[in-house]
Every structure is written in structure tokens, then in C-alpha cells.
Amino acid sequence: MIPGNGSATSNGRRRREVLSGGALIAAGAIAASASGAASAQVPAQPRSAGPIAAGRDTSLAGKSAFVSGAARGIGRAIAVELAANGADVMIFDIAGYVSPASNAKPATPEDLAETKRQIEAHGRRCVAVKGDIRDIAQLRAAANQMQDAFGKIDIVVADAAIQRWKDLLEMEDSDWKDVIDVNLNGTANQIRAFAPHMVARKSGAIIVLSSMQGKHGTSGAASYSASKHGIIGLMKSAAMELGKHGITCNAILPGLVDTALTRYPERWSHVIGETMDNPPKNPSEAETWNNRAPRVPLRVAWLKAEDISPMAVFLASDGGRMASGACFEVTAGDSALDV
């Protein structure tokens, strides 16, 4: 026998036993962990667009909506489209003079009444309110009135806006301040006035109207472009803050749409000016169409308001419940040119 060999053998045996025991303990811990993980259940998803079903992205049955700027144009189209798909609607519009910083002819009380008539023709309830989105007290009163009339507020569409065509260095103070106040501050006022009612119910859809001019600069309309950029930032911030309450917030970005905001020679001149210096100051509608249509992928110079409104239905529907904090462009293909 080699001296010390028996002791070495004994020590080796004990070492193997200790290592073996450690492996068993580790294996047991892993098995216990795996067992615990298997027994723990994944929390049920609190919100969802629901199972696949016909109409989940269009049906608004049982829902109620608020739409500003609803006397005409995109606002009217959205209000009537929501009603056509089942929603009761409160329509809100100043229906009168807004500011010297608006190039468009003002809407009228008769325009607002016509929107109400079209909504009711779809068999839905409608409350028409003449008011100013710059006044948050008026909006809070409208929210309370809507809550009383319909019992809840499911959808808010902030559409009302004005546009001023004037170079930045030629603007009057109102050309800047009033556009920002109506478009950006007015949109924020609507969210602040109506969202508390949605928070109380842990549910709701807020849709704001920005513009493709909210993604790039616009020569001659800096105040409008700035306001629409701001609306996108506002929308994304609201989506972050309100998501925990089950409220979505998204923006629709229309391309050029044929409404009172755009249907006048000065606006058409700016359209032609995108491709030439010194465009005609009073171009005809046909001249403007022929200039722009070939530059748009779907070969239309401008869209109709009714081309924009279906997007609002989707975002307000159960099918749009998991879309939030996003911009949805409806541009006849102009989006393909935007990077």
C-alpha cells in the first residue's frame, strides 16, 4: 500500500458525495421552480379587440359620440358616418365667425342643423350644440349635457380647426395666436373636458384630426402646420396617460380634402405653387386638379370628406380597441411620398 493512499481515497469519496448532494439539491430547486411556473397562471388580458366577428371593426351600436367641427366638411362626414354605423351623436360647432385668421367662409347654424338632420335620418339620436372649443367651460358643460342625454360618453372626435395662409414674417399676431388657440388648445380642451367621463367608466376612444401638414413644414401656413404637429404630440401624450384607464387616443391625418378649408382660389394657388414659382393667383378648380392629380399615386387631386370618415369608425369600434398612440393617414397615396 502506498502511504496515505487510503486517506486520499476516502477524501475523494466524500468529495463525490458532497458534489452529488449539491446536484440533487440544485435539481430539486429547478424542478420546484418549474412546477411553480407551470402552476402560475398568466394574467387574463384586461383588454382586447375581441374574437373575430363580422362588424367588430364597424359596428358602433349602443355607443355615443361627440364630434366638434361638425357643421360641415370632415366633421360632418365623421358625425354622420358614426351615426350610420349605430352611434348616437352630439355635434358641436361655433357655426359662425371664428377669427380674422381663418381663410374659410364661416359655417352657419343652418349647416349645423343639416348635419343633425342627416344623423337623425339614420335613426340615431342627435344633440346639436353651438359653442366654441376655445372655451373649456363650454366644453365641460357640453360633456355634462351629453352624459345626461346619452348616459355615457364612448367616443370623442376633435375635428374643429381653422387655417391661415400668410407668410410667417407677414402675419398679424392673430394669424399665429388664433390658429394655435383653435387648433391645438381647442383640441387639448376637448380631451380635458371629456376624458374624465371616460376615465370614470374605464373605457373610451379619442380621435383627433391632425394633417399631413403636421408631419412636415408648410410654406405660407406655418401656424397651421405648427398646430397640427402639436396635435400629434398631444395625442401621443394623451395615449400614454389615459391607456391605463382603457382609453385609446389616435390621430387621423388626412391628405388634401375638398372642404371649405381648402376650396378657394388662394389655396389652389398654393397647391400649384408646390411645383412652380409664381403660380397663378386665381387658378380654376380644373387647372388645380390637372396640376396635382398626376402627382398623387391614386391620381386624385383631393379627397372627399367621406373618404376620411370610415377611418374614424374603425378607431371608434371594438376592432380598433388595441390601436392607440398612432397616426392613421388617409391620403390617396401621398403617404408613399412621405419619409
Task: Give short descriptive properties of this protein.
339 residues, alpha/beta, Rossmann fold, 9 helices, 7 strands, 45% helix
What is this structure, in a nutshell?
By secondary structure, the chain is of the alpha/beta class. The chain has 9 helices and 7 strands. Strands 3-2-1-4-5-6-7 form a 7-stranded parallel beta sheet, with helices on both faces.
Characterization of this structure:
The chain has 339 residues and is α/β, with parallel strands linked by helices. 45% of the residues lie in helices and 11% in strands. The protein is built from nine helices and seven strands. The chain has helices spanning 5-39, 73-84, 109-120, 136-150, 173-201, 222-242, 265-272, 285-292, 305-316, and strands at residues 64-68, 88-93, 126-130, 155-158, 204-209, 247-254, 327-330. A seven-stranded parallel sheet has the order 3-2-1-4-5-6-7, with helices on both faces. The chain is globular. The termini are far apart. Residues 23-32 have low confidence and may be disordered.
